[in-house]
Specification:
The chain is α/β, with parallel strands linked by helices. The chain has ten helices and nine strands. Helix 1 packs across helix 6, helix 4 crosses helix 5 and helix 8 crosses helix 9.
Length: 294
């Protein structure tokens, strides 16, 4: 299945991880709707703003929480097929003993009313979902899957690609005199480089200007620093993505956030963009010194 080609219907055993799966799918670019009543499924497919032609992928979670309305799910899916709406069914399954443990840990009540013990309720739910599981295009057993692993595994299963490269990497320049960025995951100090501020011609410019960038990278330490950080992030970024992280902020600091950190940030973002799909340079303090001088 490829993104934007069909609607994804997510169902399965209660406690198998549908909530976490929907969070992961949202990170993967799906417009997610949880616990939709089946009678509304056809209406959802008719919304022009959510059509595949508009570039939207839709994931809809429907399960026995819908109580009596869940019995209408098969009829709702039949209507989708009759109307020519492309869809895929993802069924999340899990071993009974793990489901019992998860419910015992969360202390939530099971949505199935039949039976007294959790094992009896789970058995009743399996009967209710047997036909749906049989008709599913994709069955994903979460017995041995940790929550932070879901996104990577669903990316492989549904999109057939390595989504760890999709982690958004913000490379942020900043000035230490304005305080360190509290949202930084990794922080580097480039004040070891000679400061263009002391060149009167360069002082009013920023690291985005070629003369400042040339000044910074005329220093061999600047080029080596960028390559060292690139190698470090090549190793670490896939690990952050595999842990479930959706965004990584790499902060590059100099004194005022106008010259050295800006030039380094731009070069670093360009180099990282050769390896990862979503790299964004951000300059937090670049204009502050210029504004204060006016």
């Amino acid at each position: 299945m490829k993104l934007n080609e069909s609607m994804l219907l997510v169902t399965g055993m209660s406690g198998a991880g549908k909530t976490e799966a929907m969070k992961a799918l949202e990170d993967l670019g799906f417009f997610c709707i949880d616990n939709l009543p089946p009678p509304l499924l056809k209406e959802l497919s008719n919304l022009p703003a959510l059509s595949p032609e508009q570039g939207h992928s839709i994931a809809v979670a429907m399960d026995v929480r819908g109580r009596a309305m869940f019995n209408e799910l098969h009829a709702a899916i039949d209507r989708l097929r009759d109307d020519g709406v492309a869809y895929q069914i993802l069924f999340l399954d899990c071993a009974d003993d793990v489901l019992v443990r998860r419910y015992s840990e969360t202390r939530r009540s099971h949505p199935v009313r039949e039976g007294h013990s959790l094992f009896e309720k789970i058995a009743a739910e399996r009967c209710l979902l047997a036909e749906m599981r049989e008709s599913a295009n994709l069955v994903f057993d979460t017995t041995h899957t940790k929550a932070h692993e879901l996104k990577a595994q669903l990316g492989h299963l549904i999109l057939d690609r390595d989504v760890t490269l999709d982690l958004r990497v913000d490379v942020m320049s900043f000035g230490f005199k304005y305080g360190v960025p509290l949202d930084a995951d990794l922080m580097f100090d480039v004040r070891f480089l000679t400061n263009p501020h002391y060149d009167l011609d360069l002082r009013p410019q920023t690291g985005l200007d070629a003369p400042v960038a040339d000044y910074v990278f005329a220093q061999p330490e600047a080029l080596k620093f960028v390559e060292d950080v690139v190698r470090l992030l090549e190793r670490l970024t896939p690990l952050y993505a595999a842990s479930g992280k959706a965004r990584l902020t790499v902060a590059i600091g100099c004194t005022g956030g106008q010259h050295r950190s800006v030039a380094i940030t731009e070069r670093l973002a360009h180099r990282l963009g050769q390896h990862f799909n979503n790299v964004v340079p951000v300059h937090r303090d670049m204009r502050k010194n210029i504004t204060l001088k006016k």
